Structures are given as C-alpha cells and as structure tokens.
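To: structure desk
From: M.T.
Subject: fold request, one chain
Message: Could you run this one when you get a chance? Sequence is below, nothing fancy, just the single chain.
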Amino acid sequence: MQAQILQFLNNTYPVQLSSMEAVTNEMYRCHSVKGTFFARITNYKTYEEQLAEVNWTTYLFNRGVRVPEVVPTIQDSLVSTLLLNEEEKSVVLFQAAAGIHLPRAKWDKTIFRTLGQQMGRMHQVSKEYQQSEAAQPIPHWYDNDEYDFLKSIPAEERAIRDIAKDVLKQVRMLPKDEANYGIIHGDLWLNNTLVDSDSALTMIDWQDCERHYYVYDLAVPIYSALEFSFAGGQNLIDYKRAITKAITDGYKEEHPLSAEMSRQLPLFMRLKELFEYNLMHMYWNFEELSEEQVRILNLYRSKIEYMHT
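Reply: Done. Structure tokens follow.
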C-alpha cells in the first residue's frame, strides 16, 4: 500500500519522494532531497471540509501565522483524492514544520504565553479571512455530532446528562459576535504544537477546526495541560493559575479578550471535559473495555458528578 501512496504522491505533487513511513493510520512522513513532508490521507472529514480547512490555514500561513505550509498539487489544488483499498480518501501534503513536541516538564508558563500570542494572532487574522473573498464555510461547533452529548451518554447516567444539558445551555446563551466568535483550531495541546530551538511555536493538526467562541481555544490547552501534561514539581492549582495567566496575557497582546469572556473560561473547560467524556462513549467498544478504560471512565464520572454539583 505504501508503494501505491508513494507513486501517487510523486505523480500528483511537485516533489520527488524517495521513501515514507506511517506515523499514524492516516499520516505518513515522506522524505526527499527537498526535505521532509507529511501526507495526510483520510476521510475523517469530507473533501469539502478538508478543502475549507486548508484554504483557511494557507491564508494564515501567507499572513505570517506559524502553521504548516500546504503543498499544492501540480494542478494547483490544495486537496487531492486517492482510491485506496476501494475507498476514496482525501490527500493533503504538508511541508514539515520546524521543531519538536516538548517534554511535559517544559510545557510551562513561558510556552503558554507564546501559545497565547500565536493563538491571538491566529484569531485576529481569521477575522480578516472571514471577511475576504477567499473565505470558505467552516461548520459551527454545535453542528458537530461530537458535541451532541445526549445522543451518546447513556440515559441511566442522569446526573451527567443533566450537567451536560446545563453546560450546553449556558454556552448557547452567551452573546455571539465577531469580537468573541469565529474560526478556531479547536484542539491545541502539547501534541499539536511544535517548538524549535529558538522557542518559536508552530500550531499543527487543524482537522478539528470549527466556528466557536474564541475563548474555547484558550480553555483547551489549559484543560489538556492539567489532564495530560502536568509533570509535578509544584502544586497543581498553582500550575493552573500560572499557565492560565500566561496564556491569557500572551493572547491579549494580539487579540482583545473581554473580562466577561475571561470569566467564562471555567465554563468552557467544563465543556471540554464533557466533550472528552462523550468521545469515549462514541468511539470506545463498551463490550470489550480494558481495565484502564474502565478506570478512566470512572475517573471522569467522578470528576463530572462531584465537581460540577
């Protein structure tokens, strides 16, 4: 299969790739004398959705936002299609961005301030994009089934369903205008950022982009750092305060953040927590749960029920 993919890429793109290896089941690292590239081959999103995504990120790249460069095909298309195992999939080729995934111990307030600056710049440029002739439609968050919590969370989990309804209601009641709502990345965390030797940060993996409240982009890395990246060495609550201040301070250097939306950060962190819990119900096989999965589910149930009531 990799030979078929390599041939397709060399026939479709202005690159001469010599080898490749799978990074995930939909991402391939490719090598050539021109450097390293990453080929994303997936039908996780439709062709139209992926085209809207890379059209936006190309606009960001051209305006100096640190995102991976999309390599057009020989025919100057940002997305191509490949028939693989009798299934049509969309292909996007990226120039490899500089940097590495930082170790957890370095995911600190300094990096969070830099991330806030990049995020603020991204939101500012996105406002311009949405007013431009180049803009293509990107779906609203509430049109994504992964936010349809009541569809997947079982009826017997009454307390969590009530909490989910309340959180969704509170979010939907918030004022929505161009100052606080627009296109966001949607999944910025440790594994979706690269940092180079000069501490410059690049945001990667834009498949979950959506139209949402800008503050959600701030809530996600804070939440994810507390869940997955905290390396110890200090009190967790002190770490939370430090990274929250750092990311919001950095953000406000590039994009306004009202006091009202700042106060909503805890609400959007609850939304993110429910989102993660819902994904487990959507994608895990509950007939064959491992002990680790059962442990994680119960941990989330405990946190949601006891911390939200």
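Reply (cont.): The chain has a mean pLDDT of 96. Let me know if you need anything else for the meeting.
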